[in-house]
Amino acid sequence: MKTAIISGASRGIGKAAALTLAKNGYRVIVNYLNSRLEAERIERTIIENGGSACIYKADVSDPQATAEMVEYARSAFGSVDLAVANAGIACYGLLIDSSADCARRLIDVNLIGVINLCREAGKVMLSQKSGNIVTIASMWGEVGASCESVYSAAKGGVIALTKALAKEFAPSGVRVNCVSPGFIDTEMNSALSKEDVSAIVSEIPLARAGSPQDVADAIEWLASEKSSYVTGQIISVNGGLII
Fold first, then answer.
1. Could you tell me if 7 and 84 are in contact, meaning their C-beta atoms sit under 8 angstroms apart?
2. Which end of the chain is more exposed for a tag (fewer CB within 10 A), N or C?
3. For the segment 57-109, what is each residue's pLDDT rounded down to a tens digit?
4. How far apart are CA 28 and CA 203, in angstroms?
5. How far apart are CA 169 and CA 159, in angstroms?
6. Catalytic entry in 26, 32, 151, 229
7. Nearest to residue 4, comparing CAs of 17, 13, 161?
8. Edge to edge, what strands does the sheet with 82-85 contain?
9. Contact 232, 163 (CB under 8 A)
10. Could you confirm whether 151 is annotated as catalytic?
11. Which residues are CB-contacts of 166 (< 8 A; sequence separation ≥ 6)?
């Protein structure tokens, strides 16, 4: 059985990815930071459906905590076959009105957290001569978003990191790809009014918001042998909002 670590797996895209990968035979490490009850529910659901999962609390912006999580997976289960660097936070507002602490936290979680997980999982995968990393960026990392400048910068960094790591890791048989979601119906967007959501959806060519499952399906494909010749790619899951 292969082992997958999914950061930020207690809700939204991470939750959908955990459930989907478990159905495909992965033993899933459900990483969380604050949402223990939600993580436990996912763990229980996976086990009740015949899968294998365990929860693990770690702040991926902390390099030591991330290293300990990856080592736990390696020592407990013998390998780390897939890492999904999904954990992320958002903050909306003008850059000139934001605090330095807010900007630092956005970078720490959305970019440094991805770097930490890629580095620690990469150490194991390179020694195994096999493995798969999927990072989660955002369409705003591709084109930038007004009032989400630091978030856009962090996600743009994830995209650049993915392309660079794909070149570094490929000779050791490790693939690195990125899923770049568009407007997805998750808790991160729950503060938007119905009017705001309608206005956004009206701009999407496929005429609907994306679901966490839409993103999880892309992650599943990148994790599978069906994409065995794909690395360093950015898979945009945005309904055609940006092309």
1. yes
2. C
3. 999 999 999 999 999 999 999 999 999 999 999 988 999 999 999 999 999 99
4. 36
5. 15
6. 151
7. 17
8. 52-57, 27-32, 3-6, 82-85, 131-136, 174-181, 234-237
9. yes
10. yes
11. 175, 176, 177, 231, 232, 233
Kindly report the backbone phi and psi dihedral angles of residue 52, in degrees, each rounded to the nearest multiple of 5, phi listed first: -125, 130
Distance CA 32, CA 87 (A): 8
**Average pLDDT value for residue range 208-225:** 97
Structure tokens at 139: 């369409």
Exposed/middle/buried for residue 64 (C-beta within 10 Å: 0-12, 13-18, 19+):
exposed
Q: First CA to last CA across the chain, in angstroms?
A: 37
DSSP per position, 6-33: ETTTTSHHHHHHHHHHHHTT-EEEEEES
Kindly write down the DSSP assignment for every residue of the chain, as one continuous string: --EEEETTTTSHHHHHHHHHHHHTT-EEEEEESS-HHHHHHHHHHHHHTT-EEEEEE--TTSHHHHHHHHHHHHHHHS---EEEE-------S-GGGS-HHHHHHHHIIIIIHHHHHHHHHHHHHHHHT-EEEEEE--HHHHH--TT-HHHHHHHHHHHHHHHHHHHHHGGGTEEEEEEEE-SB-SGGGTTS-HHHHHHHHTT-TT-S-B-HHHHHHHHHHHHSGGGTT--S-EEEESTTS--
Residue 194: the pLDDT is 83
pTM of the predicted model as reported, rounded to 2 decimal places: 0.96
The pLDDT tens digits for 22-53 are: 999 999 999 999 999 999 999 999 999 999 99
Beta bridge mates, 180: 236
